[in-house]
Amino acid sequence: MKLNKLALQNFRAFYAYNDKLKFDNKSVLIYGENGSGKSSIFWALHAFVHYYNDEDKSKSYFERDSEKSLLNLFNATEDGFIKITFDDEAEYTYDKDGITDGIKTQLTNLSRVKSFLTYKDLLGLDMMHSYENELFARKILLELLTGDISLTNLAGTTLDARERLQRMELLLKFFNEITYFKNLEDFKNQLFSDIEDLSFLYSDDVGEFEIEDKEGDGTGLEFNAISEDSFQELTELGKRVITFINYYNSIFEDDTTYSDFIDNWEGSLEEIKKYVYGNDDLNEKAEMYRYIDPGDGNTSLAVYIDNIQTTIEDIEENIIDPSFTTKFNSIFSDTDTVEKLYNDWKTIRDAIDIKINLMNTGATKINTLLEKLGYSSLDVTISIDYGSSKILNFDVKFNGEDVEHHKFLNEAKLSAINLAFYFSAILSYAKPDIPILVLDDLLISLDMGNRTKVLDLIVDQDLFEGYQLFILTHERNFFEMAKRKFDFVQKGQWEYFEMYIDTRDTNEKPLITKSLTYLEKAEKYLVKNEYEIAGNFLRKEAENFCRSFLPKKYHFSNDCSPYLLNTLIDKSIDYAKNAGLPDLLFNKLNEHREFVLNPTSHDSYDVPKYRQEIKDCLETLKELRKIKIRPFLKKGEILEFELVDKDGSDVYKFEIKLEDDFRLLKIGDDTVISKGMVNYWIMRNGSYLNGNKENSITHKNTTLKKLYEDIYKTSNMAKSSNYWDEIIIQRTGEKIKTIIEE
C-alpha cells in the first residue's frame, strides 16, 4: 500500500482545506521554507501512522480544549482532519472521532518500525555512549531493534504500540538486574535473601568514629558509621527491588502503586547516607564533637548519637514492606506467571540478538552500508551488554585500528555510522504493508559532498526497492541537488513539491506547488509564446543534463572552475562516443548551440528565437532525458576473465581493478558501460607475467567492452565474444551481466 494523496484541514499550519499533495504512489521530495508548513506534513503522517499507539491521546489532537490539541490557532470554526488516499483508492480520515476502520493492522505493524527519522534521532543514536542520555538512546534503540515483536498481557491480548514500548523499556531495565541469573526464580531468591539479610551493614568493614570528652579521662563514647561499600550494596539492592516493582505493575496491571514503599525505601537511603563512613559532613561532626563532654549538658551530641543508633537498628523495619513481600512471594508461587515473565524476557532478548547478528553479518549489514556511503575505512561491530548502563556497544575500527568513535571521528563519519545503523536496522525487517520511510531534514549537519553519498544510498535499488520515501528539507540547494540525483537515477519515480508562506490573507497558510523541471517550465512558456524565457530554461536544462550525464571530474577545468555549457556539451559528446552510445541525439544538441543554447540568449535579441527551433530543442532534451543512467561498478571493484591463446596451450587470466566509478548507460535497446581508468594484471597458467604482480601491471583509459574484445581477438575464440558473458566480479563470482538482469 502506497500513499496516493494527502489532504489536511485545520491541522497545525494548515488553516484551511488543502489537497494539493498528490503523490501518485511515488516517492516524494518536499522543499519548504521555514514556517511554510513542511513540519506539519511530517507530523500529519506521523500522527496518522501512530494513531493506535494511544487512541485517546490521538483523538485529543483534534479537540479544541485539549492541551495536546494540534488544531490551527486561528481556525475556531472548522473541524480538523487528516485524510489519506492509498494506491487502491481506499480513503481513510482521521479526526476527533478517530480513524476510519479497516487499516488498524497495517498501521499498528508500521508504527512498530521506526519509519520516521529526523536529525535529532541521529544525534540520539550517537548519544548511546553517554550515560546521561541513556534513556533517550535506549528508546531509539528499542524502536529500531524490536519493531517486529508482538507482546501480550496475561489475558493474551496483544499490547498496543505504546504499552509494548513501555513493557520493553521496563524489560530492558530488568535485563540489567537478572542477566547473571539462570531464571527469574534465582533472581527472586537472591533478591529476597539480600532484603531479609542486611547483616552486611554490621560486618567487619563498618567504620568507627571514637568521640572523647574534653578532659581526656577515658570516658569517651564511640559510634558506628556505615562503610561506603556497604552503602553502595544497599543502594544497588534498592534499585533491583524498585525495578521489579515497576515491571510487576506493568505485567499484572496491578492498581497498587507501592509508592509508599518506594518513598520509604528512598527516604531511608537518604537518611542512612548521612552516616556513611567518609561522608564529609559526618567527619566534620565527629571532629566537632570530639571535644564536647556530654556530661556538660550538651544534648546535641546525645541526640546525634541516638539518631545514628535508631537508624541502624531500625533499618530492616524501615525498608521492608510486609505486604509487598507477601505479594512478591505469591507471584513466584504461580508457575504460569513465572513462565510468562521469563518468556517475555527471553522473547525480547532473543529478538534483539537476532537483529544484532543481521546488522553485523546480513545482506544489509552496517559495514556494507558504510562502504556504500564511501567509508570503507570504517569497520563497525555492535553488541548488547544487558548488564551495562551503556546498553549498546559500538566497536569501531578506523583503518584497522580500534578507536573511541565519539572522541576520535569527525561529524561526517559519526553521521555515517548512525545512518548505517538506522538503515541496517530498518532493512533487517520484513517490508511492512505500508512501506514508507519519512526523513525530515536528515542531512542537516552534512556538507554537500557527504549528502551526495547519502543520496546515492537512498537510490540504491538493492536497498530500497519497493519503499515509498518522503524526504523533507528547508535547504534549497539540497532540494535542487536531490532532484538532479533522482532524475538521473530514478527518472519518473519521484514527485517534487515546493512550499511557501501565503500571506495574501489575514492568516498565513501554506502555499504548495508542484516543483516544475526546467523542461516543464520551458514547455509552459513555449505554449505562452514567451520564446526568450523558454530558451533560457532550455539552456538551464541543457547544462543540468550535461552535469547529470557526466561524472563529476568532467565538470571542472584544471583550475577547478566549473565548465560553461559549450564545454559541457563537448565533454558529453566525447563521453557518449567513448562509451559507445549512439551519437544522433548528442549531435542534435550540438546543433542547438548556435541558436537556442547560445550563451547570449539571456540578454540579447540579436539571434532570433523561432517557435520551431525552441520546439525542436525541447524535443531533443526530452529524448536525452530518456537515457537511463545508474551507478554500476564502483571504484576499487576487481573484475576478472580467462581466455586461452590461439594454440590452446596457455590459459591467460586477466585481473582488472577499476580506478573510476563505471556507469551503466541505456538508450533505447542499447546498454553500455562507461569508459574509465583501469589497472590490470595478466597471469599465464597461474603465474604473473614478468615474474610478479608489481611488474605485470598495465594502465589504460578504456571501456570494458574494448578491453575484452581487443584481447579476445588474440585468443582461440572458444569462449563467448560477448564481454557481458565472460567478465566476472571477483568479490561475488557473478558475471557482470547478472547485475543488469536484476
List keywords for this structure.
single chain, 742 residues, alpha+beta, Rossmann fold, 4 domains, 25 strands, 18% strand, globular
In short:
The chain is an alpha+beta fold and 742 residues long.
Word description of this protein:
With 742 residues, this protein is of the alpha+beta class. It has four domains: 1-113 and 429-515, P-loop containing nucleotide triphosphate hydrolases (Rossmann fold); 184-320, no CATH class; 533-626, no CATH class; 631-741, no CATH class. The chain has 28 helices and 25 strands. The strands form six sheets. The protein has a six-stranded mixed β-sheet with strand order 7-13-14-3-15-16, sandwiched between helices. Strands 18, 19, 22, 23, 24 and 25 form a six-stranded antiparallel β-sheet that branches. A five-stranded antiparallel β-sheet has the order 2-1-4-5-6. α22 crosses α23.
Per-chain topology:
Layout: E1 3-9, E2 18-22, E3 27-32, H1 38-49, H2 55-60, E4 81-86, E5 91-95, E6 98-99, H3 104-112, E7 116-118, H4 119-126, H5 134-145, H6 161-178, H7 184-196, E8 207-211, E9 221-225, H8 228-252, H9 259-273, H10 280-289, H11 299-313, H12 315-319, H13 322-333, H14 335-361, H15 366-372, E10 378-384, E11 392-398, E12 401-403, H16 405-408, H17 411-427, E13 436-440, H18 448-458, H19 461-464, E14 468-473, H20 476-489, E15 494-502, E16 509-514, H21 518-527, H22 531-549, H23 565-579, H24 584-591, H25 611-624, E17 628-633, E18 638-644, E19 651-658, E20 662-667, E21 670-673, E22 676-684, E23 687-688, E24 697-702, H26 704-712, H27 723-726, E25 728-729, H28 737-741
Parallel strand pairs: 3-14, 3-15, 7-13, 13-14
Antiparallel strand pairs: 1-2, 1-4, 4-5, 5-6, 8-9, 10-11, 11-12, 15-16, 17-20, 18-19, 18-25, 19-22, 20-21, 22-23, 22-24
